[in-house]
Amino acid sequence: ETVTRRLNRDKSFVWIKRKLFREEREVIEGLALPGIGFLREFKRFYPQETMCAQVLGMVDIDNKGIESLELGYDRYLKPHDGEAVVIRDSKGKNLPIYREFRKGSDGYNLHLTIDAHIQYWAEEFLKQAVIEAKAEGGAVVVMDPQTGRLLALCNYPTFDPNNPGAYERNCYRNRAVTDYYEPGSVFKIVTLVAALENLAGIEQKTFFCENGEYKIPGTILHDWKGFGNLRFEEVFMQSSNSGVAKITQMLGSKTLHEYVMRFGFGEPTGVDLPSETPGYVKPLAQWSKTSPYIIPMGQEITASLLQLARGFSVIANGGYLVKPYLVEQVMDKNRVVIKDIAPQRSGPVISEEAARKARTILRKVVDTGTGKRAQVKGVAVAGKTGTAQKISPSGGYSKRDFFATFVGFFPVENPRYVIAVNIDEAHGPYHTGGMIAAPLFQKIADKIADYQHLRDE
Predict the structure, then answer these.
(1) Global pTM value
(2) Catalytic residue (choose from 68, 90, 185, 304)
(3) According to the model, what pLDDT value does residue 21 have?
């Protein structure tokens, strides 16, 4: 019925089927059907199959980009058809009086920042981690904190863009860029830096952490362990919610909000991919009495994994907000550069001194604190764990569904890599950032350390 309906259209040409397999063509040709012919077309082919799928995206049947880089850079990638201008008589017959040909041109090539080795390791270890944790999914970002070059960007579950119809649509989603969530304790870096810059002598102070239960306006803050007195650096090493809340009270809401914005939260990073989420930062005027206590621990605020990677890059690079990017050059088929994309970063948003002190404390988080499973032999690593309760469909926070996150950088003295990892809703024996996200970071970082010869002799 479909074929008959198409053949009965009042047109001189109709498609019956496109993108046939060679075997199909041979069978149809053998039928010698009058009026049936074949046109050769190009089809986009992805030789690495699922690798880098959510970065590259995919095309529709006309080879027009519909996801990720294929969509964002379609105007560069697509070829331009040639044209023929002819003169016809009143019966539509071409006349050889005048004819003009305009030659078509090939599309351009994109040169990406992605390192294929790092991308492969990130994808393989992420897949293993999600499966072992019986999780809903996960994502990984590997970035150069000095420039914003994205060296790996992956998500699981993924898909094969050669055959997208075999996968559910949510597999196409680049969740590291398009999805936002309450980040949990990884967000404590904002309070850490703000305190170092604004509270004189804060590093020598000790905070009573209420033995794990701190009554605040509207609720009770709980720590993962009942802590008594903790020094300033220990508050972050042990990720005490109570301690961070007390530090924030010394800072004040206005200062905390200012530093949240300085780190670039609440706005897109500007990465060259479509559909990036800006996340959400509650306007200061809308803060409740509870907000100053829970925003510092990563609640009532949302961010993407890419935004968190950029936030940690500020500390790693000495205070600058970089713009993540994937395409560094656009070239023609003769390798002539059509467009050159240079790294972009803002002026300093925090001081180099505060960044240096924060790096030292975040290193202690990995050396002796909650991030011990992120340690890499022979390489100094700094970072922060985060375990965030997901919002329950029935309202409030779930007691069984979590986002587990770890974001870190290395080598600490001259950071070259920021790695941000996230595991969504683990249903295995562990669900925390320290137990399932930090080990994923460690596996990727360990491979990079060998690959780039970063280990101390």
Answers:
(1) 0.91
(2) 185
(3) 86
